[in-house]
Design brief:
383 residues, alpha+beta, 21 strands, globular, 11 helices, 8-stranded mixed beta sheet
Amino acid sequence: MGTIPSSVFAFQGTTTRVECPDAADLEWLTEFLSPQFRVLETIFTDFTVKVEEDQHYFEFLWEELSKRQPNPLENTFVLDQTVVRLPSTTLNDGSQALYDETCHVFYLFPPKAGPIKILRRSQEHSIRTSLMRVVRELLAAPLGIADQNLMLHAACVAIGDSGVIIAGPKNAGKTSLLIHLLHHPSAQYLSNDRILLNKSDSGLDVQGIPSIVSIRNETLQFFPALRTQFDMRHSLFAKRLRTTPTSAGPIADFTRKKCLLSPAQLCELLRVKAIAQTKAWVVLFPRITDHEESSIVTRSVSPEAAADHLFHSVFGSGHRTGNSIFGKLHGVEKNKELDGLTLVQDLASRFHCCECLMGANSYRESSEKLVAELAAQIDLDHA
């Protein structure tokens, strides 16, 4: 029997080894998580994740889950405003088995130190989404409840060395504003959905957290050139760049409400570079309106109003995640609520915050004009 392919991923000082029988799945994971999560050459790691395929054991676990007294639903994956809770059962050896119906896998957590296993019945079901979620949760989620850290439901683009944070609820226009700013000549992609803020002596560091890029068809209407790129190639988040077809044919299905991409696919389509970290510069709150002006209208927001906006953008807002399955692995036992009030107020008071009103024609003017307006407003703040 040959050596099982493996890779080590690192983020903020925590390392995880991933062992997966299919090297192509590891290659996809590396492409999806990079550059925010680094790949290291090391022997010793904090955690190990193993992917296994065993139809008989899968069916055994399914029977155990059905006949045993179920545990309370387990906090597992933190999303923007919710926490995914999965049914679980405790096995005879003390291991905890969680069933993910969406991905058709079991997650097996050992009672003590040992590898976390992702078990699938067969290759009929892709392992990639569940593998990405487990690795991301292991490395990033506990940092969101650490002191001096704040995880936001927000996008971020760097204009040179300056980070533009785009915060707001779903369907507020974050992705539209992100794509518009990524057309700036100096733009670099950091994140489309979640960021980690860390207070440092030199300012506020913004770390990108990789996630699937969801682009609604309404957004594509604003960017004809990007829509043409979708027409030319079939971009699916669960595929690697080099395995994504570029031939003709009915490529993107615009009868669907949205298209799903990996961060690498979005960057390739827009021909921008992805980076792992930047310094916070300005905070934008997009809002879709029906105005017909051919530019994005910006309005300064008071620190108090900005803090309120940001409070509702805290990742997993309103949920306690200190006792989640991944929090326990990191030794986080306290039920620290994800409020991040101090950092929210600090962010709102230290940086220029403004609302961006966006209509159907707002993207006709260049992103350079918007960035220049923001720079002028910030200069006025500091005058």
